[in-house]
Fold:
Amino acid sequence: MRGRPEGRGALRAIAGTLLTVVAGLGLTLGASPVSAQDSEKPQVTLGSKGFTEHLIITEMAAQLLQDAGYEVEQINLENTAIVHQALISGEVDAYIEYTGTALTAVLDEPVQSDPQAVYDTVKQAYAEEFQVRWLDPLGFNNTWALAMRQDQAAELGVTKISDLKGKAQDLQFGATQEFFGRPDGLPGLLDRYELDFEDERGMDPGIVYQAVAEDEIDVTAAFSTDGRIYSQGLVVLEDDLGFFPPYFAAPVVREDLLEEDPRIAEVLNQLAGQIDDQTMADLNLRVDEGGQEPRDVARAFLDQMAQRGAAASPTGSPVGSPAASPIAG
Structure:
């Protein structure tokens, strides 16, 4: 069994405290109504993080399970540290994680750039350390990216992150608080690219893109599958030194649940390879700017996927083509 890096103990302690508070407040999303649930099947508790994309894909997982007759409870645990602690403590049975996040933020492993190598590393480590199984990736890669206003990037001649060297000292940087504390976030980015921004601000995820668009900050860290990047007139800078690892989303499930009911893996793997980057960006935009609920966006996607027979055989996606994932589960 692999040893646990020292930094993980502090993360676990903080997450444990926050999880106790969250549980005490009863911050659950609850289960969507379903037409038929099998009382002989185990109830499945899914954790989710507090941003649009994760709420949508968690809804997809929940609704697939409900359609298969499982009772599902969803708990919104806001961030990686808390939801991971909930998984290994048994407070939740499963959630959807990103390979790069698992590699760096959970396992404290060095950044790798090869998608298959990252997936294999986290899959083996989670099985050995946490008795948790990685299922097949959904298909999209929601990596971090730096974004700027198109006009400002053009004026400064910036097309890739290394172009910011010698210019960053006159630029304001803003991003989510989580990005400031991750090894694959701002500290590592500044070191790899030798950058020093004039100011660095932690911000609420809901206002980051607006802040860039309205000239309150100049550069932000964005999710590459966030449709607001383009609707707000921003441009993504090339990660020319390959700093950010791949972030392919896949369900992670406790082994004890899969031993009790192996079919849960089959149900969740219906999503494998069904969502490419552009499709995920479009789905996110329907919530962030279209005002739709994550539950409704997920339901529409699954209904169309089923109509095309994609749940049985990945031959097509309702919004875009199935992802040609470089990862073999």
